[in-house]
Amino acid sequence: MAELIVTGGRRLEGSVRIPRSKNSVLPILAAALLCEGESRICDVPCLSDVDTSLALLNAVGACACREGTDVLVCASNQMKPSVPDSLSGAMRSSVYYIVPLLYRCGEAHISFPGGCRIGARPINLHIEGLRAMGAEIETHPNTIICRAPKGLHGANFCLSFPSVGATETLMMAAAFAKGRTVLCGCAKEPEITDLARFLRRCGARIQGAGGTCMTIDGVERLKAVAHTPIPDRITAATVLFGVAACGGDVTLTGVRYSHLNAVLHTLSAMGAELCRPEPGVLRIQMEKRPDAAFVTTGVYPEFPTDAGPLFAAAALQATGESMIRETIFENRFACAAEFCRLGAEAHVQNSRLYINGISGLKGGLLASQDLRGGAALVIAALAAQGKSRITGTEYIARGYEDIAQLFGRIGAELYWEK
Ligand code: UD1
After folding, report:
1. How many domains would you assign to the chain?
2. Is the distance from the beta carbon of residue 113 to the nearest atom of ligand 1 less than 6 Å?
3. Is the model's pTM score more than 0.90?
């Protein structure tokens, strides 16, 4: 994989369009397998996790391909229940395929999903919920086998933690289970509402998505539709914290402000000027070093865990001491040790990242170890003086189509080197 060469210290200026959300696209690609006919998912970014999803869909016997910027997905009558290990191990989102394969084949065989090593990431809630709906599930050290010979039935199920993935798995399962399912303790992230919007347009009967409780009446069949996913709120946060770190005046187009409330609140506390010149457009101006801030991540609508490292990268430049407390994943701050290679004063203790902001970061050699931590290294390098080289960019490519182009469009100096 190519390395990123970043020359830092430049102010960011200009305009950038925010792409569609990775975390919406991935479950929707899987949910398209529940539909009769060809689904069209519009304006899908070229991410390695999307490529892995297309490979997975084709490997299980579906037809999935790109047509321009859209992706077309169609189930076939030769679907296979097993996901190849190399694909399930390549991304966390392979877990979304358990339910569609159960629907299509009556069983699903999948090795435990891979993904960024930001925490243990068990799938017990997916399993408990599916069992409550009548699935028979065997878990082996590396594999899970799920069967529903008589189909799934509706159930009342309460998630003990509002997991995004488990809420999405159970919503898909309930869409075709016999009878009514009531899910409580659901996650409320906008990507869940987007998946519900997709499924409802396909004919699913889902009420309450985006709230704590959902009621879902199973239907016999869903029909394929065209769907445009929501904008990527974490890519928007990446640009916003990049501007907070480097200073500048940048306009983001194609954003949903309401999805960014906690992030915008933090940026204001750091001294950024934010305005909304017209619907879907957000302008950020930062004319000084950021003020220090304290942040606690949480489930939506609280500050997103995925934006934690991005905030931290901006806080490296702040005047004073910042702190971020992570509440979702145990190993979110692998990037902290890399920040220190630029001369930053940052350390992790008990899920908290403490940062003593300084102004003279110097470029260095950085190794990305996960997706958002990798993007945070790009921000830190953009704000440091001199040249940095970032390795491990395959993690970044999972969630950003081309991060060099994203920041290059607004005046940053960075390029790929093979
Ligand atoms: C999704 C997002 C990811 C984001 C995360 C939290 C996608 C593709 N990924 O991941 O970017 O960081 O939400 O907003 O949408 N948990 C269990 N048992 C389970 C499931 C989860 O204990 O069965 C725990 C996890 O270990 C974690 C917490 O619940 O501590 C949140 O995980 P979850 O919300 O499920 O995250 P993902 O869906 O994996």
Report:
1. 2
2. no
3. yes
